[in-house]
Amino acid sequence: MTYQTIEAQSIAGSLGAEVTGADLSKPLTNAATDDIQKALWDHKVIFFRDQDLSPEDHLRIAGTFGDVYRVPFVKARDDYPDIIDIVREEADAGKYNFGGVWHSDASFDECPPMGSVLYSLESPPYGGDTLWTNMEAAYEALSDGMKSLLDGMNAMHSAERNYGSGGYFNDDDNQSVAMDIKPSESGDARIAHPVVRTHPVTGKKSLYINPVYTVCFEDMTEEESAPLLGFLHGHAIRPEFTCRFDWTTHAVAIWDNRCTMHFAIGDYDGHRRHMNRVTVAGERPA
Ligand code: OGA
Ligand code: MN
Q: Is any atom of ligand 1 closer than 6 Å to the C-beta of 264?
């Protein structure tokens, strides 16, 4: 996979590439914009290091992929309502960790985000890596029998376990020190999405379930769904489908939220980690 203006070096066999040759603090040429988009479709998550971004630069990069998605339940920055601060303080040691479960962002929404641009403002001295997994590869590796079973199924997604009225964040003990996360009754809603979705750009099929927001298969109970969902979740995070990014301050990650899951590792107790995220709107999964 070659590009006109950038180079992309894979960091793992299944997905993820580190991109060089782009300065994201400057408006991108059309050729560079095309290359970066193509690199994202090719690699599903791409990384840039040593980028000195203002909030305006950050918003501009995200804007090359689509409209901004306003993240529900998480309070945005006061000065930039389209940017969320993802912060874990020293005092969050041993508990709160945003993104610390395998998930695809906001799959509980009717139209979940297409992707995100995550920027590191302060990385801990060690730890705080993020993992991604390739849900296309996970789908491809299933047997033909399992693929055809899943091809016709829908699953119910909901924020209820995290942000619903009985969810994790409704417990005072689980509040973040720095982030303002507001659960509400709207978090209790459920929406059906296909278990296998087709990527609108590449036409490739991927698994579309995750252990946080997928509560059951459509027209089945949670108990009935749990064995197969459990198998699929375990299968989807087999190490060979994943990549791992070791953040450095001022690194950027852009991921395609439609064909990946990710996981933020909270292994830096006693240190601070500070990220900014701009989220890009997506379409209804088909
Ligand atoms: C996110 C998330 C990952 C991280 O921004 O969607 O899950 O590494 N965070 O902070
Ligand atoms: Mn996330």
A: yes
